[in-house]
Amino acid sequence: DLCTVSPPAPGRLGLDRMLLPHRVKVGGAEGIDDHLAAVLGHDVHLSIHIGPARANRKPVLQILDGDANTVAFAKLGVNALTRELVDAETAATKRLSEFCDLKLVQVPRLLHAGNWNGHNLMVTSALPAWEAPADLGPARRSAAMRELADVCGTSRFPLGESDYAARLRLRLKALTDRGEPDADTLQTAGETLLDRYGSTTMTFGAWHGDWAPWNMRETPDRICLWDLERFETGVPYGFDAAHYRLQDDIVTKAADPTTAVLGLVADAPQILAPMGVAPGEAEPTALLYLVDLAARYMGDQAERAGAALGALGRWLLPTLLRHIARQRTAQAGSTDGTC
């Protein structure tokens, strides 16, 4: 989002004519350009980016000064989900930029958090996302992921005793209670994994939540990282590495999603080793990540929003269930004396 320049919206920037299924109705209210100029203390020019159909789609405004330099970005919450995400990103940006001593990672600074015409608004500084990237190899990215995972402290617990397991069970139950399609299947898969690996001791830390090639830019000094709306603490260590691998395979390399999921699970020890995840913890980490991602897509109602990967029953859930069934068969064979 932060490095996309889109054509200006036609007419006065009231954002009431944007091509969203949820229109922002403003009437004769102050335009967003005037509001941002008052917030920032100088005249602004705006470029509007509206991404592809997905549940978290929201207006992202690129803010330029009179010399056409990008000085900031703004996001608006336009429905219940995006308002929640803008609030979450506001809190995460403030926390990471003001209170955390990051050396390898650079996040935007929070310039403003407020309200415009009934919609929550956040404004952040611009990172140098338009500069030529400096590809210094995967080891540097892994080090940056470890720094972010450690930023709020880490802990080690048996999975079954962790806050994460309790939170995930509640999320899965809430989806089932809400009657989401395939929620009972996802709940069964998730609880099976939580029970199976309940005694496995794991490390828990923070994750960006959507660390992907399009949400970062490497520079000679640091990795610039933005879109912090999914930042979370107390998750299995290595989630960011698993997410990066899956998204890079599906989106960047155009791999078949089912094949990408199978590859993630099969290669989990190698993918997570640079994060310091022990081989015995790699498979449960990858499988829990997949359940967590499925719960996110389902909770966001991504399929109804038209997201390309929103139809979980076509790729993620069947693959996850087959792997759990194979595990059950393998375990049964190891206890009945057969080979």
TrEMBL record:
Superkingdom assignment: Bacteria
Classification via SUPFAM superfamilies: Protein kinase-like (PK-like) (SSF56112)
Name assigned to this protein: Phosphotransferase family enzyme
InterPro entries tied to this protein: Kinase-like_dom_sf
